[in-house]
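Hey, I'm writing a tutorial for new members on how sequence and structure tokens pair up, and I'd like a real worked example in the thread rather than a made-up one. If someone can provide the structure for the chain below, I'll link this post from the tutorial.
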Amino acid sequence: MSGTLILVRHGQSEWNLKNLFTGWRDPGLTEKGHEEAKEAGRKLKALGFKPDIAFTSALSRAQVTCDHILHELGQDGLKTIRDQALNERDYGDLSGLNKDDAREKWGEEQVHIWRRSYDTPPPGGESLKDTGARVWPYFLHDILPHVLRGETVLVAAHGNSLRSLVMALDGLSGDEIVKMEIGTGVPIIYRLNADSTVASKKILED
């Protein structure tokens, strides 16, 4: 029996727009972000998807995105589990800083390493490797069993928490995954085999 896993990064946040490091801080969505989330729901509806359960993070931008998608699917009230294991990567001392200001303070090269290396965390924060160390076990224990039972599962989360899942599902290296961009409000749909291998993958880009 195969199941379906739908991954969606939250719509544009207020801090995405302002070019700030966000991490575990909790800004809301912009007007564009709300529309991106609704459009994700409309795309999924057009293809006939009906999730059996939804998962999201402890941060409001992902939760609101999840709510918009479910509303567009006519599934308000669907069981939705929130857990900080799906939170965005913690940017530590960079959180709340403008990315250009951070480059001025620490230098272009150092900020680039913190942003784009796989295993080098910023001060007080997490690397992508650290993020994966909390996301992947949660996926295996709490999310994957639903998919393997043949259910359709929606996960509305964040760029780096979703990168951690894509890395494992697609068998990517650390160097490969840090180069991957996951667009805001763009559904990524996996069909998984009963042995949890990927049967197919589809990205619903414009």
